[in-house]
Amino acid sequence: MDDTALWIVSLLASTVRLATPLVLAALAGFYSERAGVVDIGLEGKMLTGAFAAAATAAVTGSPWLGLAAAIAASLVLALVHGFACITHRGDQVVAGVAINTIAAGLTAVLSNAWFDLGGRTPSLDSGQRFLSLHFPLAETVRGVPLLGRLYGEVIGGQNVLVYLAALAVPATSWIAYRTRFGLRLRAVGENPAAVDTAGISVTWLRYRAVLITGALCGVAGAYLSTAQGAGFQENMTAGKGYLALAALILGKWRPYPTLAGCLLFAATDALQTRLQGVAMPVIGTVPVQIIEVLPYILTVLLLAGFVGKSIPPKAAGRAYVKDR
Amino acid sequence: MSVSTNTDGLPRWATLALLPAINLGAALVVSSLVILAIGQDPVSALAFMVKGAVGTGTGLSYTLYYATSLIFTGLAVAVANHTGLFNIGGEGQAYIGGLGTGLVCLALTGWPWYAVLPVAVLAGALFGAVWGLIPGYLQAYRGSHIVITTIMFNFLASALMVYLLGGPLLEHGQMAPESREFAESTFLPGVKEIAAALGYRTSTLPLNLSLVVALLCAVGVWFFIWHTRWGFQMRTVGANDAAARYAGINARTTIVVAMALSGALAGLVGINELQGVQHRVTLNFQAGMGFTGIAVALMGRGHPVGIVLSSLLFGALYQGGAELSFEYNEISPRLVVVIQGVVILFSGALEHMFRPALVRLLKPKAPAGAGQRA
């Protein structure tokens, strides 16, 4: 019994840790896509953020400076995306592919040249990383069955960026549905002509959305290299940006359902490592790849309308032409 | 992304030669800045790259070998583009296509290579076509976004191959996740065999007969897209699918056929990589060639001649980049990925940036705003 409880607590704690970068990146995608700018460049911006954070933290010794560098680097790529898609009305998907490709190449080239560790940055010690925060009384209540450990290891005991991601969900929901900016942001993703007619700049709104996307991707990247990990490795995002995009689609471009999607994907990821080679009752040993591909299959089925229907913002993917 | 736009009156030579040249120039400037940032001399580095890519027989052989795979994936991206689809799944289609080719080579043990080749080509094309056809079907009949679906299919392909190479296809007593070696009779001959026949013994000349297959595919795509009813339908759907429907074209079938053809072309990468060089099914043998096909197709403006030329360029970049990283420890071979990304940015996403300026420059009498299009 106690073993099962321990197993559940460790699964939950690991789910929360794995969900954090997905939540940050998916919310990043939320702003951009709800404003009508498709962003498959989440992956590249995260990767760049991860590198900038680890490199800066390794050199300066401060994870906070690393976080700032990650946000700054990711913002630069977001501006490139905006420049190509909003100013020059370029193809948004192609721009995203370009950003992912540039990020994959540039982080590998720079980490290799600056640190000479075969595409890694130096390992960060505890002072250069975001460490777990210990909640008050965690040791005292540890003995309480299940709840004590839940408090100490799942709700508490995470690093500051996890809580930031958790706060970002209600904050995003509030901004999108309760503020004037949010109303306009959603409007510009559905019907930019109407927003334009109301005398509001479509361009400036979309740029702001893309910049928020950049900032959040930067935080997600910093989380990977300076909180969850202890340094940068080549291609360390490993498809998490695409997975975040899938969670956004699964959540039908709404904050709370997107959070649920991220938690679901993170849970399958956490389960997958725990079920490797484990024989289960009735079905026996399941190849881990089957669990691994569940998020992708779910996304395909959902987009195809076989399991519910996910409809993107109406104007997503299209550049706005003022003088038609 | 549109493949060609002739509504703004830009001369054909400028579209086909000048714009790609400007894009390449911009990519070179950016890569020079990156090399400078590393603290190296860009001119000597780039000169070394050129020498490494085409300066020696071995270098040239590698350049053409990389170019072979890129012709397949570049054509794949271009065929989908002509139909107005962005096939980002060339990577997965190449991977699964290679599985088809590999299974044929594993099965036809006693056969000579010239008998195996047509079967291997068919199997590679068929497997790749299936991996492209499903996203195409979902786009045409279920309204799924082709970009997201093909990304998901890349992950699915990767997981499937990890599973197959870790279990069912794994050679007994083998640690590395790869299949057993194909029978020697099935190996595609290449310049290595020619050199051996002439009395030279070499071990590293990967260029093989699949270059001929790739060039035949380029001719085939040219004929198909511009000289058949199906090709016309694809271009019409790509240009304006509403107009295509009014003209009585079945846009849905056209999309499915285009994606199947696109996947089939990408699926032939395994002919070069597996039957030609590795002689077994290996993990990640396609190694980014599917993604690079996007840059190749954009740079080649979707035309087979342009695609062959830009495949040569990117093949040279791959080979030159590899040589460069041997010479300069500080420069990672991934520099070619940066160049590739910048090319996609300039010739794809920012195609409207240089173009209006060129239109103004080359057509002084054009009325204001003529360079803009929706």
UniProtKB/TrEMBL annotation, chain A:
It is a multi-pass membrane protein. It is found in: Cell membrane. Keywords: Cell membrane, Membrane, Sugar transport, Transmembrane, Transmembrane helix, Transport. CDD domains: TM_PBP1_transp_TpRbsC_like. It holds the Pfam family BPD_transp_2. The chain crosses the membrane at residues 6-30, 65-86, 93-115, 160-177. InterPro entries: ABC_transp_permease (IPR001851). It comes from the Bacteria. GO terms for molecular function: transmembrane transporter activity. One of its GO terms (cellular component) is plasma membrane. The keyword Nuclease does not apply. This is Simple sugar transport system permease protein. The lineage of its organism: Bacteria, Pseudomonadati, Pseudomonadota, Alphaproteobacteria, Rhodospirillales.
TrEMBL record, chain B:
GO terms for cellular component: plasma membrane. CDD domains: TM_PBP1_transp_TpRbsC_like. It is a multi-pass membrane protein. It comes from the Bacteria. It is found in: Cell membrane. Keywords: Cell membrane, Membrane, Sugar transport, Transmembrane, Transmembrane helix, Transport. The chain crosses the membrane at residues 12-39, 59-80, 92-109, 115-134, 146-165, 207-228, 249-269, 281-298, 305-322, 334-354. Its main location: membrane. This is Simple sugar transport system permease protein.
